[in-house]
Each structure stands twice: as C-alpha cells, then as structure tokens.
Amino acid sequence: MSATLCAIVKNEAPYLVEWVAWHRMLGFDRIVIYDNASTDETASLLAGLRAIGAIDAHIPWPVTEISPQLSAYIHFARDCRTDWLMFLDADEFFVLKRGGGVNGFLASFPADVACIGVNWRLFGSSGATEFSPRPVMERFRRASTQASPLNRHVKSLFRPDSVDQIHMHAPSLTRGRAVLANGAPLEMEPHGVATDVDWSVAQVNHYFCKSREEYAVKRSRGRASLGADDPGKFAKYTDGVFDFHDLNDELDDSVTPWLPDLGPICADLRRRLSRS
C-alpha cells in the first residue's frame, strides 16, 4: 500500500519544513509540491527539499486563467502511481488520533472504501498579532468547537483509480463508497461539506488565520482556487473574514504527544538543507 500527499503553494517558505516534516513523520510515502509562481524563497527551498529527498517532486506551476489549484490537482491525479492520494494546503495538517501512521489508518478500512473524508478543525489566532518562527502547531492551540459549521468541511484520502472528477475537498467516485474517518458514511451537502463532524479518529488542523501579520500575507497571495483574472481572487480575505474564522473557543492539544519527535526532524532537515 502507498499513500501520496500533494499540495500547491505560493509564498509559504516559513512553513514548509514543518509541514513536510510532520507529514513524513505520519508516514506518507511520497510528497509532491507544486509551486504557484512564488516570489519568496519557496522555490529554492522546495528545490533543496527535493535534493535531500524530503519531498519527491517540486513542480513549478504558473499563474493561469483557470484555477491553478484545481488544474494542478487534476494534472497530478491523472498519472499518479499511488494507492491513496490526499490534497492538503500548506496551512492544513493531517492529524491521527492513534498509532500506526497513514498506511495503518488506511489499512483499517474495507476494500470497497474509495474515499475517506477527514473533517477540518479550525484553529484561531490564539491572540497572536505578529509572525514568529516557532512551529505553527506549537503557536496555535486554541480552536473552534465541534458545533462550528466551518468544521463540516472535509479533506480526503482517496483511491485515484476510483475517481470520476477531482474536487478541492473530496472527489466524485466511479466506484466504491465514501466514509468519514470513523467509518460512518460520508454524506455531503453541498459537495465537500459533510453533514456530520467527527474528530475521534482523525482531523485536519486548519490554521486559517495564524497571526494578523501572517493573515496579511495570505491576503496578498489571493485564492489559489481562482484564476489570475478572476475579480474575486483578492476579494475574500478581508478583516471580517479573519474575525469570522478567528475561533479560539477550546484548547486542542491533540498534536502535543508528537511535538517532541517533530522538533528534531525539523532541525535535521534544516541542517541538511544548509549543507546542500
């Protein structure tokens, strides 16, 4: 069994080492990252991560008239050689609540399961106003309650050979069934938004806001889901949207047991990058 993680990024250099280290630690067999015309150090960092074997491919992806995100996903899914595939953004971290890693998690599902939807858990700013180089998962521990409708969104692991159409959150299937991470049926209204929220087995930590300073950088990138000439590309990320997503209702320490292992992995990657 093999599991591949794919992302498209733009100006995410401060976060990539942590994001790659985390998902390697979870056991993804391959990590492939598309670079959507970054203007910071992202391209050189991705080239370095590829050179030291931390990621498996770094693919430059231009700004296009159609969605660069969706076009990259379709491009990769068309010819990928993997049993399972997951698309995540650089502000999303897949979190398992039990051991066995990604492949152990996937092996726990029956053979007729072709898509596993994993609910978001939206994290707020924890009151931070400025960027810090400390790990994202260490800085932001306050999150929304299960009742927040934003958490109904899912990101999914799916079998590429069972897909009809690629979507940002969950594909439509030609065969097989879709379930939540706890094995319950995945019912979506609308597509990509589950009717239920369950974090008992897994969740996707979504660090939408980070600090206000970092949110301003997010605003300057625009939406990867929209083409370069779309009038809505830079309209979404207003102060009001920050406030709407800045939910800090509960402490979530689900990643705490993993952080002592994550730190040395990040440090090792940075040492190897400095020598490459």
Low-confidence stretches: none
Instruction: Tell me the β content.
Output: 15-25%
Note the quaternary state here. Answer: single chain
Helix content: 25-40%
Shape descriptor reads: globular
Quickly give the CATH architecture. Alpha-Beta Complex
User: Count the helices. How many?
Assistant: 8
Q: End-to-end span in angstroms? A: 31 Å
Overall SS class: alpha/beta
CATH topology: Spore Coat Polysaccharide Biosynthesis Protein SpsA, Chain A
SSE string, helix = H, strand = E?
A: EHEHEHEEHEHEEEEEEHHEH
Mean of the pLDDT scores? 93
Care to count the β-strands? 13
Main sheet record:
9 strands, mixed
CA radius of gyration: 18 Å
Q: Given this structure, which CATH class is correct?
A: Alpha Beta
Q: Brief description of this entry?
A:
The protein is an alpha/beta fold and 276 residues long.
Mind explaining what this structure looks like?
The structure is a single chain. Helix 1 (16-26) links the parallel strand 1 (3-9) and strand 2. This protein has helices at residues 16-26, 42-51, 68-79, 101-107, 136-139, 212-221, 239-245, 259-275; strands at 3-9, 30-35, 57-60, 84-87, 92-96, 113-122, 142-143, 154-158, 163-165, 172-173, 177-180, 202-206, 250-251. The longest helix is centred in the C-terminal third of the chain and has 17 residues, at 259-275. Helix 1 (16-26) crosses helix 8 (259-275). It has 276 residues and is an alpha/beta fold. The protein has one domain (3-275): Alpha-Beta Complex (Spore Coat Polysaccharide Biosynthesis Protein SpsA, Chain A).
